[in-house]
UniProtKB/TrEMBL annotation:
InterPro entries: Thioredoxin-like_sf, Thioredoxin_domain, Thioredoxin_H-type-like. Residues 1-26 form the signal peptide. This is Thioredoxin family protein. Residues 16-133 form the Thioredoxin domain. Pfam families: Thioredoxin (PF00085). Keywords: Signal.
Length: 133
């Protein structure tokens, strides 16, 4: 039988773990993709990440907490993140020459500086992002 103090401590610990889990799996902030917004970010010389994403994709889901963690770091604060929906934005997917969801493409201004498909390793995703800054 738990004492009142043990029950409160357990409840607090459970709340902290739940809060940390929710933060760990938060989706990274992204700018809605439009060709005009993308071109504006390019011409402003911004570092850019384009995510070719599908809501049903398990790899995309695995990338989300990694990207969230990395993009919260100060060196990526100016990175503009565009999410392109693999299913509903076929013209954009085609314009980026992406054949699969879970494609990550980085740009430094107007120049593509990196691309990966299906990557869920934090170190290589961080290297990909760092090419754009």
């Amino acid at each position: 039988m738990f004492t009142r103090r043990a029950t409160l401590a357990f409840s607090l610990a459970a709340a902290l773990v739940a809060g940390a889990s929710a933060m760990a799996f938060a989706e990274p902030e992204h700018t809605p993709f439009t060709p005009a917004a993308f071109q504006a970010a390019q011409h402003a010389g911004k570092p850019i990440l384009v995510q070719i994403h599908a809501s049903w994709c398990p790899v995309c889901a695995a990338q989300a907490p990694i990207l969230s963690e990395l993009l919260s770091q100060p060196q990526y604060r100016d990175m503009v993140v565009f999410r392109v929906d693999f299913d509903s934005q076929k013209d954009a997917v085609k314009s980026f020459k992406a054949r699969e969801q879970s494609t990550l493409i980085t740009f430094k201004g107007t120049t593509e500086v990196g691309r990966s498909v299906g990557d869920t390793h934090k170190g290589s995703i961080e290297a990909l992002l760092s090419h754009a800054i």
